[in-house]
Amino acid sequence: MGNSIHSDTENTVQVGARRFEKSPYYDFYANSSTVLGVVAGRYYGVFNGEDPIDTYWTLRRKAVLYDVPEKPWQIEGPDAVPFMERVFARRIENFKEGRGLYAIACTHDGGTFMDGILFKMGENRFWYVQPDGALEPWLMALSDGFDVKISDPKSRVLQIQGPNSMKIMSDLTGGAVNDDMRYFQSGFYDIKGQELYVSRTGWTGELGYEIYSEGGKTDHKKLWDDVMTAGVPHGMVYGSMASMEIRRIEAGILDNVTDFDTSMTPFEAGLGAFVDVDKEGFVGRDALQNADRQVALYGVKCQADTPEYRGEVLDGSSAVGHVTAAAWSPYLNCGIGYVRFKKSGDWAGKKLSMKNQNGETVECEIVELPFYDKEKRIPRGQDKTIP
């Protein structure tokens, strides 16, 4: 069934449970069919015995609850802002409290080291929510000479995603979360007696929210029960990465290490819009000044087949790239995926070939990302069409 790093249920091995961090929510949904993966040193649900296509449609039409492995890091202190100006390729100085900011960290030679969401929690206090990758030692290494403290707030993240997510969050917060909370806004809210951080963000391209716990301060069992109690009347179900992976590919959301890595610049990864090249002093700026601005990561569509994960993409008989993620799109009714080309360039519109899951060579079309909703009208709540 799996055809991507986040949906592979067949290539499994036994791993000692103490080596990585198990979610405090795990026991509330795990069953004999559960398959786990590891991101940022944390287990997450790759599959939970559900039908991923059914859950996908619930995500598009109602709501799905996901227990995700995103890991927030706290950066605080008098030099927090100048330190982050050094670390991230986005401007931080005018960043307002109550907002989320997509921010990229680069290597000294301009490679894309990390992407994630930065939140301003208070004066000189920030959380940076990372996907996979070794962020802590990188921050520690760069903090020399800055009066900052980097710590792990032990926060776990629940995502409520789908068109009914606002109704669910409104019920959880007594109406405090409503239409006034815009895309990428955030803040502390009372959720049935627990003060928790909430952001209007997610990893699905749908209208959605994320709830951040605060380690031992949070009663995770109560929070889970409260979320399920509020969500079930609105059709919410629990889902694993098997359904989220389909939707995130449709939405053109990239995964660190999987779809891009330090050998690609943000421009090659299609993330150039999130790099303020004229900002002085950030790591990687000098290398990016004269870097090629063309893109090397594109979408691919196959009308009757799902691309083979990590399969080669061929231009005639020449291998020109490989697939980094793939899925069958129920909405587009075709196979889709990402292709990382060996050379950046204007690949959109080209007809190439690749292997499908059965090892057969099939024709495919290269397209720009995302596959639809380029203006993000769905997560912004501007497009409320239910497919």
Topology at a glance:
Layout: E1 35-39, E2 42-47, H1 52-61, E3 63-68, E4 71-76, H2 80-87, E5 100-106, E6 112-122, E7 125-130, H3 135-142, E8 149-151, E9 157-161, H4 165-172, E10 186-191, E11 194-199, E12 208-212, H5 220-231, E13 236-238, H6 241-250, H7 285-289, E14 297-302, E15 312-315, E16 318-329, E17 334-341, E18 351-355, E19 361-367
Parallel strand pairs: 3-13
Antiparallel strand pairs: 1-2, 3-9, 4-7, 4-8, 5-6, 6-7, 9-12, 10-11, 11-12, 14-17, 14-19, 15-16, 15-18, 16-17, 18-19
What does the model show?
There is one protein chain. By secondary structure, the chain is of the alpha+beta class. The protein has two domains: 1-293, 2-Layer Sandwich (Gyrase A, domain 2); 296-387, Aminomethyltransferase beta-barrel domains (Elongation Factor Tu (Ef-tu), domain 3). Helix content is 16%, strand content 30%. The chain contains seven helices and 19 strands. The protein has helices at residues 52-61, 80-87, 135-142, 165-172, 220-231, 241-250, 285-289; strands spanning 35-39, 42-47, 63-68, 71-76, 100-106, 112-122, 125-130, 149-151, 157-161, 186-191, 194-199, 208-212, 236-238, 297-302, 312-315, 318-329, 334-341, 351-355, 361-367. Helix 1 crosses helix 6 (241-250) and helix 4 crosses helix 5. The longest helix is centred in the middle third of the chain and has 12 residues, at 220-231.
Number of helices: 7
Overall structural domain count: 2
What's the SSE pattern?
Answer: EEHEEHEEEHEEHEEEHEHHEEEEEE
- State the major sheet: 6 strands, mixed
Percent of residues in beta strands = 25-35%
Label the overall shape: globular
Q: What is the CATH class designation of the largest domain?
A: Alpha Beta
In CATH, the architecture of the largest domain is 2-Layer Sandwich
Helix/strand/pairing class, anyone?
alpha+beta
CATH superfamily of the largest domain: Probable tRNA modification gtpase trme, domain 1
Instruction: Give, in spatial order, the strands making up the sheet with the most strands.
Output: 10-11-12-9-3-13
Percent range of helical residues: 10-25%
DSSP strand count? 19
| Rg over alpha carbons | 20 Å
According to CATH, the fold-level topology of the largest domain is: Gyrase A, domain 2
Mean pLDDT: 94
Note poorly predicted spans: none
